[in-house]
Give the backbone structure.
Amino acid sequence: MKRSSLFTVLLCFCLHSRAQFHEIGTFLGAGNYIGDIGSTYFVFPENPAFGLVYKWNRTTRYSLRANAMLINVKKSDYSPLDFARFNRKYRFKNQIMEFSVGAEVNFYDFNLHGNDKKIAPYLFLGAGFIRYNLFYHEPNTLENIEYGKGNDITLPAIIGLKANVSPFVVLGIELGVRYTFTDNLDGSAPETEDGLINDLKFGNLYNNDWYVFTGLTISFTFGDLPCYCKE
């Protein structure tokens, strides 16, 4: 009986000090690609984007987070800011699917169990996988000719600000930058199984492509509340 009581007290203390709470929600916003076609604005949300977000809040300061994101990129050289690109007249469309995991760190304590409203800036760093369409620009017609699917690694970095508007709802606004391990989101470095198609490449082949997400997150909390035991 004494052992059972001791076990109950220790379990409650453990849950109190290391409470775990889960969040699942959506990302709604827009994004842009940065590469060898079109304008080179770093943050220019012009293409709709959405996704799913899951967080496992290990403490009030950090969480383990997983993202599943989708963006349909559409870009063209018809921009007066770069006259050389404007004369080239390239354009493309691509769909990027991203799956990433990493750690989200709050700059202040963000206690989802409390009744007080909290606001906290945060930083997310992780690694992920992207899948996108492979294509090349047909020299004569400037049409995009698809020839398969590409898979590569991406390194996401996200900064944001979030608030618990209720014990069960968290709202956030965030800006997420993704560096990719490919220079071919825009078809500027088409490859086959035999290697790079040299006569179809263009742009800076030593600078990989980026893409950026800007938008809002809304997540719903779930999971058992911690056990508060009387001494």
